[in-house]
C-alpha cells in the first residue's frame, strides 16, 4: 500500500507532505530507502506539491490527513531525499532520477546521507530556482559545470564527501553566502575563491589543506571561517583584511586549531587577526 499524507505541527501552519510505501513496484518505480519509494512517473502527478519528504520519525504524533489532489496541490518548492537516520536502513540513493529535474520551481533540495557519486548536468541546467542545496555525507568527487547556472543559489552544503580538488565551478556562483566543504580531502584552494564576494561563511574544517591563497582577503563579508584540523603551516597576511570575522580564542565561529602553523605560530593565530597583523608588522613581512 502506498500512502501520501499531510502533517501539520500547529494550526494555520504550512503542511509538510510525506510519501511512504510498503510495496516495491518493479522497474517503473525508484526505490529510495527501505519502505519509501518515489514512482518514476511521480512528477506528472505532484508537480504542484509544496514539500515532499521521506525523513519520517516513527514516534511522530502529528495530525495526519489524506491528500486531496484536487484541493491540496500547491507550488512544489522543497524536496527532502535525505536517507532516514532513525530507521537504520542502509538503502540510500545511488543516483538521481531524471524526474527530479522536472521540478523547475524547486528552491530547496536535500540529498544528505546517501551514496551519490555523480551530480548530473541536468541539475544545474533545469533546477535554476534552487536557493539551498545540501549533499552532505555522500561520495562526490566533483561537481558539474552546469551549477554555474544556479544564479539564486546562496547556500551549498558539501561536507563529508570525497573531494580532493576544490570544485572550481563554485567560484562562479557569485550569489553564494554559505559554503561548507568540511571533512573532505582538499589539499589546496583556488585563487578564484576571492571572487565569492558575498560569502559570509566558509567551512573547510578537517581537510588536507597546506596553504590558503592570499585572495581570501577579498572576502570582505566573511564572518565565519573554519580552517581547523588541516595541514597549514602558514597564513597569508591578507587574511587580516577580513575585519568582519568573529575570531578570538573564545569564539567558535572561526577556528584554526589542529594545524602545524609556524608562520605565524599557532599561539599567535588563535588570538585573532590583530595578533596576526602585529606578528607580520613586527617581522616586516607583509608580502604574502
TrEMBL record:
Residues 170-245 form the Disease resistance R13L4/SHOC-2-like LRR domain. The keyword Repeat applies. Keywords: Leucine-rich repeat, Repeat. It comes from the Eukaryota. GO terms for cellular component: cytoplasm. Pfam families: LRR_14, LRR_8. This is Disease resistance R13L4/SHOC-2-like LRR domain-containing protein. It comes from Brachionus calyciflorus.
